[in-house]
Write a structure and sequence with these properties.
This protein is of the alpha+beta class. The chain has helices at about 25-40, 90-105; strands spanning about 10-15, 15-20, 45-50, 55-65, 65-70, 70-75, 115-120, 130, 140-150, 150-155, 165-170, 175-180, 185-195, 205-215. The strands form three sheets. It has an eight-stranded antiparallel beta sheet, with helices on one face. Strands 8-13-10-11 form a four-stranded antiparallel beta sheet, with no helix packed on it. Strands 5-6 form a two-stranded antiparallel ribbon. 2-oxoglutaric acid binds near residues 128, 133, 187 and 189. It comes from Peterkaempfera bronchialis.
Length: about 220
């Protein structure tokens, strides 16, 4: 749904805001096209292997920095060794605009310089367990964009992965921002809602989620 009523930010917790219908259909289509290109390479999209032997059900491709449990590197140390695609300047602009709109503050994007994005693709069975985004050396907000099938997004507390939490339905085009006191809240995706995607986005099945982040990292000589 698009229109003024759909664009009212809803604060889920202090610093955590859901803004439905933020991306236009055209923006969603062009993000889907860009993600399809990034999924092919230079580092192909993959199921991330976890240190204890598990494999994540989502498939992930990264921009700017490559995330593997539990660090960022410039090269895909667990996926062929290639250097990840550049984090595009237009995506940094999108991240700044997201903060302005979510926090309803024209200055909210000032000084926000994201340098990575994790792009997750969920098929109809994929889920993401409760976790904190804490491999960044920065407490700058995380900007999350959703396209395709809706999902149940579980937004919890900063102490542990259990209740209290709030379940939010994220639909195609929705923005979710978490920063400030909610930056290190546990969150996850217990369920994708199959059959809810609008094929007009170019994604007729499954769900795409893009999180735009500030790593707070610098390239050091000899960095991977
Ligand atoms: O798919 C989502 O909405 C959340 C993604 C997420 O939690 C993450 O990438 O850390």
């Amino acid at each position: 749904m698009f229109g003024p009523a759909a664009r009212t930010p809803r604060e889920i917790a202090p610093g955590a805001v859901h803004l439905p219908g933020w991306l236009t259909p055209e923006q969603q289509r062009s993000l889907v096209e860009a993600c399809r290109r990034w999924a092919v390479g230079p580092v192909p999209i993959r199921h991330t292997r976890l240190p204890r032997g598990g494999v994540m059900s989502v498939r992930t491709v990264c921009l700017g920095w490559h995330w593997s449990p539990y660090r960022y590197t410039r090269t895909a140390v667990d996926a062929g060794g290639g250097r990840v695609a550049e984090f595009p300047g237009w995506m940094a602009d999108l991240g700044r605009r997201a903060l302005v709109d979510a926090y309803r503050d024209p200055a909210a994007g000032d000084g926000y310089t994201p340098d990575t994005a994790l792009i997750n693709f969920y098929d109809e069975q994929a889920t993401l367990g409760m976790h904190q985004d804490r491999d960044e050396r920065s407490d700058a907000p995380v900007v999350s964009l959703s396209i395709g099938d809706s999902c149940v997004f579980r937004f919890g507390n900063t102490e542990h992965r259990n209740r209290p939490w709030t379940d939010v339905e994220l639909a195609s085009g929705d923005l979710f921002v978490f920063g400030g006191p909610s930056r290190f809240a546990y969150h996850g995706v217990p369920r994708v809602l199959p059959g809810t995607a609008d094929p007009a986005t170019g994604l007729s099945r499954g769900r795409l989620n893009i999180t735009i982040r500030v790593t707070g990292l610098d390239d050091a000589p000899g960095a991977e």
